[in-house]
# Entry
Amino acid sequence: MFPSIRRWRRRRVLEQHALPDALVEQAFSAQWALQRLDGPDRRRLRELATLFLHDRDVYGAGGLEPEPGMAVEVALVGCLPVLNLGLDWYRDVRTLVLYPGDFVARHRYQDEAGIEHDEESVMAGEAWERGPVVLSWANVEASRDADGFNVVLHEFAHKLDMVNGEANGHPPLHRGMDRQRWTRAFFMAYERLCAELDAGGEPWIDPYAAESPAEFFSVLSEAFFELPWLLKAEEATVYEQLALFYRQDPAAGMKGPVGYSSSSPSSSFPDASSVCSSPSS
Ligand SMILES: [Zn+2]
# Structure
């Protein structure tokens, strides 16, 4: 599409399909991860969410009929990671599916002997490669606090990871970023987490992060936007890499919400079995 046509289309969508003020305000005040944004960033995020929703289908499943406010909240939080990257990063996300609560996903996989198995898992969210983002609305609501759990950020981080293929904790890096530095920062932090868990410790982040490098990237992305001051204190080099990748510095001038206790996050993580997976379609 010619740039001028693209700009014209963008302006027309923003004018004719503006998200209702009340729903936008409701989402900004509900979701902690959005509250640090200043006026200009809120306007830009709102524009991204408007354009995102205009080109996507939102379906309910499991008996849920999505209300407009649900889609607005998911879109605003989902677009936060690409606030300074742009919607092209979500070009594979054409559909959102919302369940009322945890849902059962059935997947087929092949073991090392080549034998196929069917498996059922209880999920809070799912991101499919070249496919939809599936979310449990109850878990979207449970993602509103500053506790490092945010299923929307988690699944959309998987989609960014999948831009260059299967989710593996290595999204495509921007020009000027150093792949070796990224790998070293994440590998060292991953090793520290696994060692702490092996020693019976209680890590500051969701232990589900130890499941795989892909989950590690998504869980640390949740922390980047919800507990940035803590991530920066605990894993400074990972914070630095994520700040370069997301082109945001959420820890700047932020110490956490009033009443925040550094011991509170781990107590509120859901069971690992109910978080998510990122199967290939
Ligand atoms: Zn995941």
